[in-house]
Amino acid sequence: MFLEQGIKPQNKFWLYLIGSVLIIIASFIGQIPFSAAVLYSSFVNKKAFPTDNAEVMQIFDPNITLFLVMISFAFAFAGVYYVIKYLHNQTLLSVTTSRKKVDWSRILFSFVVWSIFSALSFWVVYLRSPENFVWNFKLVPFLILVLIGILLIPIQTSTEEYVFRGYLMQGFANLAMNKWFPLLMTSLIFGSMHILNPEVTKMGYIIMVYYIGTGLFLGIITLMDEGMELALGFHAANNLVGAILVTSDWTVFQTYSIFKDMSEPSAGLDVILPIFVVYPILLFIFSKKYNWTNWKEKLTGKIAILESPN
């Protein structure tokens, strides 16, 4: 049982608060190379140190910016590992899945399904309004983007999954001793972490429905599947395919993607459709493939404390 693996007498909730702070500190340490690079650039070019996040993201070549930003997640992941191992005396596997080993076929299946769907969805949008997109492809920068993306974006997405669907999910389970509270809290916190994204400024707070809904979807598939594998594959596909396919001036990252979206963003079907149509379809696909049953108990039931053998 996935959540139950984190239920131990010594795993008091205050330890998760300490662990979260340590992970944040590790992430800040990982941001030092980017901050140092920005400071050096400001000094060399005799410009004031930028205080606006959008300005910071445009100082360097997009590939360099992506690389420097992704590095911080490698430090954060190291923080997650050491907090789990030394603060909670757990293995990384116990925060990943209830299975005896990580099921890579699940990660791959989820990755492929969402990659195909993302590509087809973009193609439909492109065919409906080709005037909103311009060809942005440049071979060498694109190949560098693909290399950086394949190496580092899965680290970024996996770090987020280990923090929210793994570490904090089990942490809130220790506090509430039920399943609905960890699911709800991690979804809300995951969504709130995106509130400073430029997409929120452009589209308004309605887009938070998408971010929180996505967190809820990832939490549901984690609890129903008794492990994070499907969430890991989905999240990696979502960010990697997005970075490679299309960029815009109003997203968090500007990349050397194949296309550039020139349209003015608005919150409409692109917010509602995934939450109320696409994600339920994915839940149906996953549930049929992996024979999910007993939904109410797995999503809202009480935590069954695992008894250690005498």
From TrEMBL:
User: At the top level of its lineage, which domain of life is listed?
Assistant: Bacteria
Q: Please state every residue range assigned to the domain named CAAX prenyl protease 2/Lysostaphin resistance protein A-like.
A: 143-241
Q: Which UniProt keywords apply?
A: Membrane, Transmembrane, Transmembrane helix
Look up keyword Membrane and say if it applies.
Answer: yes
Residues spanning the membrane: 13-43, 64-84, 104-127, 139-157, 177-196, 203-224, 267-286
**Do you know which Pfam families this protein is assigned to?**
Rce1-like
Identify this protein by name.
Answer: Abortive phage infection protein
